[in-house]
Write a structure and sequence with these properties.
Chain B: This is REM-1 domain-containing protein. Chain B: Keywords: Coiled coil. Chain B: It comes from Oreochromis aureus (Israeli tilapia). Chain A: It comes from Oreochromis aureus. The structure holds two protein chains of two kinds. Helix content of chain A is 19%, strand content 29%. By secondary structure, chain A is α+β, with helices and mostly antiparallel strands. Chain A has a single domain, classed as PDZ domain (Pdz3 Domain, Roll), CATH 2.30.42. In chain A, a hairpin with a 2-residue loop joins strand 6 and strand 7. Chain A starts with 13 loop residues before the first strand and ends in a 6-residue tail after the last helix. In chain B, helix 1 packs antiparallel against helix 2 and helix 4 packs antiparallel against helix 5. Chain B is of the alpha+beta class. Chain B is built from 18 helices and 18 strands. Helix content of chain B is 31%, strand content 19%. In chain B, strand 16 and strand 17 form a beta hairpin. The N and C termini of chain B lie far apart (87 Å). The chains are: A alpha+beta, B alpha+beta. At the A-B interface, strand 3, strand 4, strand 5, helix 2 and helix 3 of A face strand 18 of B. Strand 4 of chain A pairs antiparallel with strand 18 of chain B, so a sheet runs across the interface.
Chain lengths: 128, 667
Amino acid sequence: MSFVPGQPVTAVVERVEIQKLRQGENLILGFSIGGGIDQDPGQNPFSEDKSDKGIYVTRISPKGPADLAGLKIGDKIMQVNGWDMTMVTHDQARKKLTKKREDVVRLLVTRKSLEEAVKQSKGCYHKP
Amino acid sequence: MNNSKNQRDSDIQKKIDHEIRMRDGACKLLAACSQKDQALEAAKSLQTCSTRIMAYMSELQRMKEAQVMQKVTRRSSDAGPMDDRLPCKGKVAISDLRIPLMWKDTEYFKNKGELHRCAVFCLLQLGEEIFDTDMVIVDRTLTDICFDNTIVFSEASPGFELRVELYSCCSEDDYSAGSTPRKLASKLSSSLGRSAGKKLRAAMEPGPCSPVSNGGGAPLLLPVPSVPGPKYHLLAHTTLSLSHVQDSFRTHDLIISGNEECSYWLPLYGSMCCRLAAQPHCMTQQMMSGCLKVKQQCGGDPQSWTKVHAVLKGTSLFCYYRQEDVEANVEPAFTIGINKETRIRASEKDPLSKVQNICISNHYGGEEVTHTVTTDGREETHRWMEAFWQHFYDMSQWKQCCDDLMKIELPSPRKPAPITPKQGSLYHEMVIESSDDLSSTVSDILARRMQELELRSQLGTSPTWMSAFEESTARCTGRSRHCTRMSGHSPCTPHRLPRSPVSPHRCPQLGLLSSDASLTSDSDSHCSTSPCSHHHGWPEPTSSYSLLSSSPSRLRPRTLSLDAKLSTLRGRGYGGGGTFQCSCQPPPSSLLAPLPISSCSPRSQHSTQTTLSCSSSTSSNSSSNSEGSHSPESSEGGPFSRPSPARRSLRNLRARLDPRNWLQSQV
């Protein structure tokens, strides 16, 4: 999931639609993010490429909205409601996820297993 | 004696010839090269060669003078045997030279003015040996001049004087040729150090002849080539001696020559840091060895002598059963300390063997322990006593170098540039090698890692926290709640179980653990106060995190990250979209038994190692959720004799998600 400067980034993504949950006066999604272009990519335990400064899911609250929607720990978030997440600061990402006027966030996330799944499905048909 | 003198003469002459050849080569290179870097390097070699030639020549001069003096003294008095004791020589190493600079803030921060660059290097001289460091280009973007070289001088006496000279050359000059000899002489005189330079200058002047007499007839001065190209000037110098030797970094003052007007000027702070270590030969080599008989400590029977092969080295007398043991690196049978507090005396003649015994007394703790040692004959005894006296003399001359052996690291000839991790942390250990292994997910790799750890722990180097899971008596201090839950599970020591790995319990896959999980269920987390810590009496870390290490063999420096301040922010529970959740509430200390790793205890509290408490405290905040990490494949069930790899892997993962190292936000 690394990028080559100047080249478009391609990834196999999954759409995850999370309905925010209201808790008091807060709307929560039930996960935590890490990463950002202003953060140290070397500290990211989930990224394959240690120079990847994308936004990653670091924790999922069980039975929370994100969990129910199918978000998984270690996912890299590519888009949030159409806003790009591959080249944002940590705070910008957080803000895009926590807009008070939005009840639902539609994410595009990618993970290694998706790539694998696509590869396998495109692969040989002769396996028993 | 004459022969050895002649030998030394010819040695020095050979060295001089060699250096002259090198110097010619450097001159040619300097004349021929077009690139500035090459020119600077060549000029540096030229400078070094010239200095070496001066040094050898003055050494020759000294030797000739000494010869002459000796003849004189021999005529005047009967030369008795030289019974001055000479201390042993040693190795002196200087490394990690760092010279701080003091730029004006307008220059440094605002980058005003044109960039003034200088090429600098250091010349280090001890006795006859002269070495130079690598050249470093310095401009106002640098705060320090650092030389990475380690220079080792091999034959230094305790009264050594290590002269450090810093040369610099402006790296933008137009190297104009054709300076008049006088200008050259004055430049060289400032480069080569005052006394040598004065000699040189005097020699170059056609005026009255130099004060240095040509005792031996060898030409004192070779014509210094005037070569177009960069020329180095002495910027600063200092002299170090035995009192400056220490096994750590020290700061020394520099004497600065030159002023702001000079082209080669650099704003030096005025001091220099370096590590100056010395290894006298008495600490590294065998000073004396032979057969001894040691009286048995316990026996009153005077006949019970143990025959040993003894080796005097460093601060001990090693006694081996057989001589072959020394080469075989077998542990000595016993060791008698020989240090500054040891007292050695010869006792009265033993009536049986008619040989004097040697008594070696030491103070161990409050007691005085005496070993009695004897040899085969009188000459042997004399030799051993002589060796002991020499050893004591060496130790008194080398002073602090003989307390402990200082390490001198010799860099390998071709050292590749050290690949330093960006910030030292445990994360860098974890390489996610998912390229080949299709099935590897994070948790699998973690599981493998835990197995590694397990292997390591089986070899005996288990991280201390593992002991929390060892079968041990369940010490039921504290909550009765825990006790009741624990009733069914004897191997568990509830109080010592860290709270964090709670999460997996919830997952149905970790069936067996689920009940145990209730132990450290999050509902308790708020009221926990780490009974473990009180238990073991380890000091509570002042920060809210207690630290463990999952890789006991390695120590990593603490990473200072931008979000360090977050550690003081409090989590707000499940709600609170938008604030940085670092959630370290006071009770987090409860979450973990603070078990510093035995091997590195003083630092372990501060070094960033797995911080399980952190992640669990994050979870403890949110009332309903506790852990958050799903690690779907992390189920490796099994009887709960040791924490399952899955559990440990989770813990590992959680450790790496330390918000102090990597900012995370809850949304």
